[in-house]
Amino acid sequence: MKALNSLVKFGAGAVLATVGAFASTNAMAAGGAGCGTYTQADGTAVTLECSKAPIDLTNKGSLQRGAQTFMNYCVGCHSAQYVRHSRLAQDLDIPPELVEKYLMVTTNAIGDHITAGIDPEVQGQWFGAAPPDLSLETRLRGDDWVYTYLLSFYEDPSRPWGANNLVLANAAMPHVLHNMQKSLSKEEYEARVGDLVNFMAWMAEPVRHDRKIYGAFVVLFLLILLIPVYLLNKEFWKDVK
Ligand code: HEC
């Protein structure tokens, strides 16, 4: 009976551990802590809540729009060194000809990784901080942090580029989406930035959607496996007093 107990406990423990691991990766991907604090003009410190990024890796239209924004507005300075251009065609259902025509800004070979237009090290000397590689950025900071960061630029004449950021104070990055922001309504602009962050989330973990489905199947499998294991255990021990 003791052995049976420990076996059942072990089985339940394994299931719980799997569920726990599954839940914690979700929490990590959700961004965790807030988006920092900033000081208002009157000197009071305000805590900035992260806004929720609209992540949906099954929404190909959103990912395609995000890819377009990323290649047009970000790749001049940032690389995404773990992502090949051909992967955009494959995973986002974009015909390779269109990738070659519109989405390859820093290379002519579709098999190449996404490199920055200008060497980030040289930029480091110009801006005071080198633009980091963005392949894994949403895993490093969380989707919501990146989304909130991109929405938190404000005018600040004291900065070299005339803009500052609430989330990353005195960021060396200019507000590169300024013209886009001016030409769109608030909702449209937030939707465009949402698509962009959705695309960055895909870059950081292309299998994220599938992983969750596999995770659910694994937990289900373990739960079902518990039944024959329990019965087998009963059978093995039935003659042992
Ligand atoms: C003119 C060059 C330039 C362009 C274009 C640019 N960035 Fe940046 N970016 C920078 C620099 C420089 C930094 C480093 C900021 C710092 O640490 O102060 C940065 C930092 C960032 C960070 C924060 C990194 C971190 O974890 O600290 C994110 C996120 C980011 N950029 C996203 C983007 C996205 C998305 C785009 C396209 C819409 C973009 N950037 C376009 C120069 C650029």
Automatic annotation (TrEMBL):
Signal peptide positions (record): 1-29
Gene Ontology, cellular component aspect: membrane
UniProt remark on cofactor binding: Binds 1 heme c group covalently per subunit.
Keywords: Heme, Iron, Membrane, Metal-binding, Signal, Transmembrane, Transmembrane helix
Domain Cytochrome c: 61-204
Keyword NAD appears in the UniProt entry: no
Cofactor: heme c
Cellular localization per UniProt: Membrane
GO MF, one annotated term: metal ion binding
Membrane spanning residue stretches: 213-232
Binding site for heme c: C74, C77, H78, M173
This protein's record includes keyword Cytoplasm: no
Protein name per UniProt: Cytochrome C
Species in which this protein is naturally found: Moraxella pluranimalium
Lineage: Bacteria, Pseudomonadati, Pseudomonadota, Gammaproteobacteria, Moraxellales
